[in-house]
Amino acid sequence: MTHPLQTKEWGEFRKDWGNNISHYENGLIIFSKIPHTRLTIGTVIKGSDPTKKDIEEISKIAKVNNAIFVKLEPNVLHREDLEKKLISWGLVKGKTLFTPTSFWIDLTLSEEELLKSFSSKTRYNIRLAQKHGVVIKEDNSDKAFEKYLELTFETAKRQGFYAHTQKYHKLMWEHLKEKIAHLITATYKGEIISAWILFSNDGFLYYPYGASTDKYKEVMANNLMMWEAIKLGKKLGLTTFDLWGREEGKGFTKFKEGYNPKIVGFIGSWDLVINKQLYAIYKNLEEIRWFVLRFKKKIINPKF
């Protein structure tokens, strides 16, 4: 299956964002410049099952683009044989961009079968949101998107995570809306209190972005949002809903677990090193960078 991050639309978006884009026979490489240098880092995110020919082609393209390394994170379930091949081709395990496991929901099941499979608490919360009159709908209007942006930065501040800029979200939406991306909203008492962007492509539905206000959280709008997203996927004729990530112990993971998804594990992140000396320096600088970012977060948002 072709992941949304390997589509023509995603490539055009990243090109407009300022990245260099290259195509090889089976995928898309995005090159990001290292500031104040001629060097780049390449990424092949959620690409196809790589072959030796792919690796050789990617290596040639990377050298032309002055890449220190290319990070490959295939959209391929973990296989021992593939891991051995990647090692034999000279790739090394790298820092992951996506979580190594995710959740999949089988959209070929009937609505009755799906509801029955959910946890009792999840079913209760869905009914509660319906009882409160929460309304879920697909709304790709500019007004709804502006509300999505507002809720995104409210959620990022509340939960302490790093969000893409408004410019990034707007450009992404401009390229993907009504092609790959769908915006669904939850309205309560005339106010949008939750907004999600879903991706659909090649038989799969994805849940990459979600945001909500802390206001009215007792009406359980997000539980109904997930149920309506599942029904949207079925309406679009899709077969699988990928919930875009899983981290043990996290609140969003516990939320997703209520829908009885299947846990799937991917092959992980692999770095194709082009310049060994610069790669070692880069890795050390990245460790320092993330240490500083985590330290700043603790200072700005201390937990006593």
Automatic annotation (TrEMBL):
PANTHER family: LIPID II:GLYCINE GLYCYLTRANSFERASE. The keyword Ion transport does not apply. InterPro entries: Acyl_CoA_acyltransferase, BioF2-like_GNAT_dom, FEMABX, PG_Glycine_Bridge_Synth. GO terms for biological process: cell wall organization; peptidoglycan biosynthetic process; regulation of cell shape. Keywords: Acyltransferase, Cell shape, Cell wall biogenesis/degradation, Peptidoglycan synthesis, Transferase. It comes from Candidatus Woesebacteria bacterium GW2011_GWC2_31_9. Belongs to the FemABX family. It comes from the Bacteria. Pfam families: Acetyltransf_6. Residues 118-247 form the BioF2-like acetyltransferase domain. GO terms for molecular function: aminoacyltransferase activity. This is FemAB family protein.
